[in-house]
Structure formats: structure tokens, C-alpha cells
């Protein structure tokens, strides 16, 4: 559990240490845990890129507006 907390708070910079500790605890099936960790890291990286890009932000706002408008039109019918 300490390894997970250290990974989440940034104390572990190298994921290999986390992977090694997962293998020591869970054995060969630990690949799911550290693969999931890598997936979450990539997702957060892409989410940050979308959130910080002005064009992407405008597109997300437009999407939200169109969804709201569609819901409003459906309520009128």
C-alpha cells in the first residue's frame, strides 16, 4: 500500500520500482495493476493537453452548448 501512496504522491519517479513491488506482492498477475497505472498516466496527460489547448476548450464548450440546446428543444416538444 505504501508503494501505491508513494506513486500517487510523486515520491516514486521511476515506475520500475512500483512494478517490482507489485510483482513481489501479487506475482505474475500484477501486470494488470501497473499496466492500469500507465493507462491512467497517459489519460491524465492527454486530458491535460486538451484542457490547456484553447481550441480544444472552445470545442468542448461548443459541444456542451449544443447538448444543452438539444435538451432544451426536446423539452419544448
TrEMBL record:
Q: Which Pfam families match?
A: Sin3a_C (PF16879)
Q: InterPro entries given for it? A: Sin3-like, Sin3_C
Q: Name one GO molecular function term.
A: transcription corepressor activity
Name all Sin3 C-terminal domain ranges. Answer: 2-68
Kindly give the PANTHER family that the UniProt entry links to this protein. PAIRED AMPHIPATHIC HELIX PROTEIN SIN3-LIKE 6, SIN3B-RELATED
Q: Which protein, by its recorded name, is this? A: Sin3 C-terminal domain-containing protein
